[in-house]
Fold:
Amino acid sequence: MAERLYIGIDLGTYQSTIASSAGTTNTIQTVVGRPKDPVARNFLGRDVLFGADALKNKLACKIFYPMSSGVAQDDEANLAAAKAFVTHLIESVDPEEYDEVLGVICSPSHVSFTDKSNLVATLRGLVNAIMVVTEPFATAFAVEEIAGSLVVDIGAGTTDIARIYGTFPTDEDQLTIQEAGDWLDGELAEMIRKKFTGAQITKDMVRRWKEEASYVGAETKEVMVELSVEGKKQVVDIGDLMQEACESIIPKIGNAIKKIIATADPELQPVIRNNIILSGGGSLIVGLADRVAKEIADIGDVRVWCVEDPLEKVAEGALDLAQQMPDEMYTSIE
Ligand SMILES: Nc1ncnc2c1ncn2[C@@H]1O[C@H](COP(=O)(O)OP(=O)(O)OP(=O)(O)O)[C@@H](O)[C@H]1O
Ligand SMILES: [Mg+2]
Structure:
């Protein structure tokens, strides 16, 4: 039998992860840079840059976020960037050493690969056969909670909430809300600008502060950060704003969870109320599981918990699925 490589891919708005059956896992920020002009091309010494490398050289490059929300999927430049990015991601696990590559792919829910033709075009020539699944389903598979659970994937672009009951969830089983990591960064940035007039901050600075010190709960913590106000260095405490920004996503998530439970089969409802799983980078907010449980306590006994290593869970689950699903579940794209 020909030698096969199985891969699981989590194409994310902010970062993407690939896991292979050869044991390699790689995460790369979903960013592509192309040198702005021949001078930049000459200085950088390459035609295309990816992830952190692209961001480091962002002033000399035209930057693409090919999976970001608001990116039209028929935009040629972004499609080409997506293809280059996915090629780079897959090549990072050395597929050329195998006769056949079979992949399970998760892509952001806002990327409407309605007929999947763009996704297939992006993967053609790299993978022999694919299966497309949702992020919550891959997560549930990774933590072996397929029988009955409610998965909340808090990503950068969207929060995807799905009920899981032993089979592939349908569209009715899933709800997507726009409040996620990027939205939280925007809220926090606005609060900082309002409180510290003239503060010069970027989206990347705010995201880093959030990743270092995000939290929810009743007690206000101190979070000291350094910023410039009209060119002058200032060290300020944004602990109260961090709390307020992170708290602001709680009712949005709470309402979406309640909706998904209320519309479930009545016999499934107690099962999923007791197995609410938080995943995605947003689940790293300190105190989140307890706070979400409190928010939805009015619907009865609930149990809310966070997966370990949330940034890799989707790709891990996709790889598990890739290895366990029978061949007829795959669509050949040769
Ligand atoms: N400690 C942290 N606290 C809060 N948010 C965090 C933390 N660490 C990472 N994040 C946020 O998690 C998000 C990235 O998570 P993830 O990798 O799951 O998203 P994604 O898969 O790229 O996005 P999507 O699923 O929406 O396409 C970013 O917004 C990032 O800032
Ligand atoms: Mg994701």
